[in-house]
Amino acid sequence: MTPAGALGAAAQVVLVGAGSPLLVGAMRQVRARMEGRAGAGVAQPWRDLRKLLRKEAIAADGTGPLFRIAPLVLAATALVAAAVVPIATTASPLDGSADLFAVTALLALGTVALALGGLDTATAFGGMGASREMVVLALVEPTILLSVFALSGRVGSTDLGAIVGSALHRPELVVSPVSLLAAVALAVVVIAETGRIPVDNPATHLELTMIHEAMVLEYAGPDLALVEWASAMRLTVLLGLFANLFAPWGIADASGAMPPVIALPIAMAVFTGKVALLGGALAAGEVFMAKLRMFRVPELLAGSFVMALLAVAASYFLA
Questions:
Q1: Which of 18, 25, 46, 63 is the most exposed place for a label (fewest CB within 10 A)?
Q2: What range does the domain containing 303 cover?
Q3: Side-chain half-sphere exposure of 183, counting CA atoms within 13 A
Q4: How far apart are CA 76 and CA 51, in angstroms?
Q5: Which neighbouring-strand residues pair with 159?
Q6: Helix, strand or coil for residue 12?
Q7: Looking at per-residue confidence, does 191 or 205 come out higher?
Q8: Where does 37-193 have alpha helices with state H?
């Protein structure tokens, strides 16, 4: 473990933990402005979290320890992912954990924990949301693995830092057919994994159309604050990973000539700009899209899986 790597991991956790609610607020503000509304302000998610933390923790009747543990697991996996994913730097003290399969498993663990928490309530909506979430998870995780695995062929490693570093040193790889196919596939699954339109609507209150929100209907107070915070962090991590896989410029490289004390703040500022741009584009696109019916979602995700499979095939034929 190097001091630069430890500093980078800590900076990433702080950046994602503190900035993710602001990203959600900025996306809501973009949607509000485009819909002709004033909006509540970029800092409104932080005010909502502060209000929830001041409330009493209440558990639904009949629920067990799993119901209370699920938000903690979801938040913990999001924080660990923020530490190991190359967001602001490719140098991490957890290089062995920054593997594609380990990060995907971390995200899946948080999703499964929340689904089990929704099932533990024994309500109709909790079970419905959990079953829908598992359908999405079963289609999303293989696509994430394949799309990023297609990019790993050029470096011979599934380490995310190495993949991002190769694109940083060889910019021509970013516009290759492999990268373009993988980018399309990964963009679709990022939308699905974070519960955005057209797969899910994070602002809906119609129970029959909900996926993520149906699982958290019984949560309140600090537990709900953890769930909302963790969801915002997962969105930030996935958007940041997408940005750095296909536009890695600005990230602090482990082999760079610039000292980490200088390179890291610059990388954090660049990362903030890239994620804000992606989040704003995603929010603007949601204004012009409608949520898909549930039975059409597997068709969309199956299409992204085919794109990822083509990216893997192209990585071998064009190597």
A1: 18
A2: 3-317
A3: 13
A4: 21
A5: 99
A6: helix
A7: 191
A8: 44-53, 65-84, 100-120, 124-152, 160-169, 177-193
Q: List 89's β-bridge partners, or say none.
A: 252
Which H or E element spans position 246? Answer: helix 221-246
Question: How much is the pLDDT for 237?
Answer: 96
Over the stretch 166-180, which tens digit does the pLDDT of each residue have? 888 888 888 889 999
- How sure is the predictor about 93, in pLDDT bands with cuts at 50, 70 and 90? low
Cα→Cα distances 220→75, 104, 217, 265, 319, Å: 15, 28, 8, 36, 52
Give percent of the chain above pLDDT 70.
93
Half-sphere exposure of 233 (CA within 13 A, CB side): 27
Q: Which residues contact 231 (CB under 8 A, 6 or more apart)?
A: 74, 194, 195, 212
Taking only the tens place, the pLDDT of each residue in 132-177 is 999 999 999 999 999 999 999 888 888 898 899 888 888 888 888 9
Give how far Cα 168 sits from Cα of 238, 244, 245, 246, Å: 19, 9, 9, 9
| Residue carrying structure tokens 């990964």 | 186
Residues 6 or more apart from 186 whose CB is under 8 A from it?
143, 144, 147, 148, 242, 245, 308
What is the number of domains present in the chain?
Answer: 1
**C-alpha triplet 60, 63, 64: angle, nearest 5°:** 140
Q: Residue 59: which residues within 8 A CB-CB, separation 6 or more?
A: 67, 68, 223
Tokens found for residue 264: 């890291």
Q: Whose CA is closest to 126, among 205, 216, 220? A: 216
For residues 9 and 94, is the Cβ–Cβ distance under 8 A?
Answer: yes
Q: Which DSSP letter does residue 250 get?
A: T
CA distance 121 to 59: 9
pTM (global) more than 0.70: yes
